[in-house]
Amino acid sequence: MTKALGYEKSEKKPVFKDVLGWAVGSIAAALDKGLLKQSDAANNQYHPDSAIKRNEIAVLTVRALGMEQKALSIANPSAPFGDTKALDKNWVRYIQVASSEGILKGDPDGTSRGNSYTTRAEAVSVIFGITNKLGK
User: Fold this and answer.
1) What is the pLDDT of residues 22-48, one digit of tens each?
2) Which of 54, 58, 125, 129 could form an S-S bond across to 98 if both were Cys, CB 3.0 to 4.6 Å?
3) In contact, 96 and 74? CB cutoff 8 Å
């Protein structure tokens, strides 16, 4: 995502103690630009080789669009998906904004599956949607 957004790799070492090798420059750049935050990682570990969940993609999407304050200001979030009531409202805020921007569309059955892992196709679709929205 950092490359698609045009972020230059950073020479800084990320604050996450498990980020090594190939991921260092991109994750440091994402931290510099506010796409990632130190508070996103429990125990100061980011797990760069792990799969990402749909609700996590929603957070990255909203931050990439520069709309995090909009998400955080939603007092009673409700995304247009039938299964978001089961999610923590903090996730729903991000899902609501990302879906209202036309980036997250949910599944044909009307669910977001926020706690499910994102497929490669879904990740590409999200990145494409973000870069189109930002004119990149």
Assistant:
1) 888 999 999 999 999 988 887 888 888
2) 58
3) yes
DSSP letter, residue 36: S
What is the identity of the amino acid at 109? D
CB-count burial class (<10 Å; 0-12, 13-18, 19+) for 96: buried
- Gap between the Cα atoms of 91 and 122, Å rounded: 18
Query: Average pLDDT, stretch 19-24?
Result: 86
DSSP-assigned beta bridge partners for residue 53: 117
Cβ density class 54-69: b for 16+ within 10 Å, e for less: bbbbbbbbbbbbebbe
Tell me the pLDDT of the chain averaged across its residues: 90
SS3 category, 136: coil
Contact present, 70 and 135 (Cβ < 8 Å): no
Q: State the pLDDT at residue 76.
A: 92
Report whether 123 contacts 81 (CB < 8 A).
no
Q: What is the distance between the alpha carbons of residues 117 and 132, in angstroms, rounded to a whole number? A: 23
Closest CA to 61 of 109, 111, 133: 133
Question: What is the rounded CA–CA span in Å between residue 25 and residue 31?
Answer: 10
